[in-house]
């Protein structure tokens, strides 16, 4: 098993891409601390993976709070003895153009998407230095191809990308790799719809006109990229931005919307 014994922290593990990533990594032998605020969901996820080759330990934390981030790292050390990989996946979005975006919503996105990467990575640094580990940050293809009306989210994910490149340089001498995965349009709860509602919307063709591939992306597609970066295959990759987007950034004309 490619990830046997890898000690991984996944934030935003209570739904969507994070939950799928926990599932895939544990299935390949990694030990995973599954982190988010909705604790019951984490418990259910861990219970469902009780028979997996890797251990899954649920941990409740608000990843924008330094104290919680430090407690998260302490929990991983207690459970697994250290951290090899930190996946900064937690994030949120409020869709609104600049003139109607509330201050609190803009600041909320900056906290959930940007401050979280800062405090969680900083909290994990000592452990990542010991393991010569890796940080994987979730960006978004909207940075390369901003859709109208999502300025706050685009700005926050742009910051994630810039931070990751800067960190890849700052931490490279410690043997720590820092990379970004940019999902395209993947059904999840992020935009306030249920996964089923999003799938139905995509199935009617709304998103397909924007992609090269005529297939709906799946959280598993992103989880596979995380697994690759977390494993031996990613050994010589740092400062990279990897699109998992069905060709969304190629910029097909907006046929249907
Ligand atoms: N789905 C897409 O199409 C897409 C595209 C590009 C990028 N992304 C990025 O991929 C990542 C995962 O998104 P998703 O689509 O899976 O959305 P999602 O289903 O809404 O998941 C977001 C996760 O973040 C957690 N979270 C948010 N704020 C948090 C906080 N303060 N503390 C701890 N956990 C927090 C949520 O858990 P709790 O509410 O339980 O805390 C939830 O588990 C995000 O960074 C998102 O921006 C997604």
Offer a quick outline of the entry.
By secondary structure, the protein is an alpha/beta fold. It has 7 helices and 7 strands.
Based on CA atoms alone, the radius of gyration comes out at 17 Å
Percentage of β-strand residues: 5-15%
CATH class: Alpha Beta
Structural class: alpha/beta
- Helix residue percentage: 40-55%
Reading the helices and strands in chain order gives: EHEHEHEHEHEHHE
Question: Order of strands across the widest beta sheet?
Answer: 3-2-1-4-5-6-7
**Global mean pLDDT:** 94
Total beta strands? 7
Net shape: globular
User: What's the story with the biggest beta sheet?
Assistant: 7 strands, parallel
CATH topology: Rossmann fold
Individual helix count: 7
Listed once per kind, the bound small molecules are: NADP nicotinamide-adenine-dinucleotide phosphate
The total domain count is 1
Low-confidence stretches: none
Using the 3D structure, state the CATH architecture: 3-Layer(aba) Sandwich
């Amino acid at each position: 098993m490619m990830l046997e014994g890898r000690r991984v922290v996944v934030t935003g593990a209570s739904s969507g891409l994070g939950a799928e990533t926990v599932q895939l990594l544990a299935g390949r032998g990694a030990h995973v601390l599954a982190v988010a605020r909705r604790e019951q969901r984490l418990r259910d996820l861990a219970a469902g993976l009780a028979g997996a080759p890797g251990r899954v330990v649920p941990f409740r934390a608000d990843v924008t709070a330094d104290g919680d981030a430090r407690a998260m790292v302490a929990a991983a050390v207690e459970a697994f003895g250290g951290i090899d990989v930190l996946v900064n996946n937690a994030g949120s979005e409020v869709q609104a153009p600049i003139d109607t975006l509330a201050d609190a919503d803009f600041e909320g996105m900056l906290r959930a998407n940007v401050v979280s990467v800062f405090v969680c990575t900083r909290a994990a640094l000592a452990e990542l230095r010991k393991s010569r580990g890796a940080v994987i940050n979730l960006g978004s293809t909207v940075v390369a191809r901003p859709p109208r009306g999502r300025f706050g989210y685009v700005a926050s994910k742009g910051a994630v990308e810039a931070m990751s490149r800067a960190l890849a340089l700052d931490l490279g001498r410690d043997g720590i790799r820092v990379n970004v995965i940019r999902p395209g349009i993947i059904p999840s709860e992020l935009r306030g719809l249920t996964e089923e509602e999003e799938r139905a919307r995509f199935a009617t063709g709304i998103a397909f006109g924007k992609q090269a591939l005529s297939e709906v992306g799946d959280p598993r597609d992103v989880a596979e990229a995380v697994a690759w970066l977390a494993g031996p295959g990613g050994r010589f990759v740092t400062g990279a931005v990897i699109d998992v987007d069905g060709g969304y950034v190629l910029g097909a004309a907006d046929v249907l919307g």
